[in-house]
TrEMBL record:
Solute-binding protein family 3/N-terminal domain location: 10-234
UniProt protein name: Solute-binding protein family 3/N-terminal domain-containing protein
Cross-referenced SMART domains: PBPb
Pfam families assigned: SBP_bac_3 (PF00497)
Amino acid sequence: MALASPALAKLHYLTEEYKPYNFTGEDGAPSGLAVELLHQVWQRTGTPPQPVSVLPWARGYYLLTQKPNVVLFSTARTEARDPLFKWACPIGYAEIVLMGLANRPLTLTRMEDAQQHTIAAVRADVGEQLLLNNGFDEQKIMTANRLPQALKMLTSGRVELIASNKSTLMDLIKAQQLDPARFEVRWVLSSEQFCFAFSHAVDDALVKEFQHGLTQVLASSEFQQIQHKYFPAP
């Protein structure tokens, strides 16, 4: 039996709609691979189950930067973000891509070629931040509060590309009953770890305790079952 961790119960756990890692289930409760992983970590650390708030990403990210006791997931651990927060990793790995419509000719031979095109991204998401960090003109980046809105910009012709996690985009495309063959990856911006990001003010020992619990879960048969549930073998 794990020792109870009252301090982990004092943190505020925030997430967003980002299938299959975190999303609102049919019963209205937070669900997904990362949510189940979090519940397993709580179990390992003797932490009573805590509320998880599902917010637009920009709101959750803002609270992570402003409040002293926030955990935000699933957060891509980029080079620019790394010193801003404390981290427990990994939840998983993601390819952040520029995706376009297959029937619209658009050739990128280097990332800079994409700077002349309009691109949809979720506000404050890793896709938008990678573009800005690489010198893209913010006037060319059309932001949305949620990924379905950004995808709609692409399919309606408002933008030429969308920047996001490839697996989450494909999951959304299938959920909206769109033909995956209509979409094509034009460029891979980055490959990143998805993690639990902690406010910088959270005590190092607490983050270490959470990481220890996470490492135990990742090595367990329970995690293999969770992973197979959300990423079934083809």
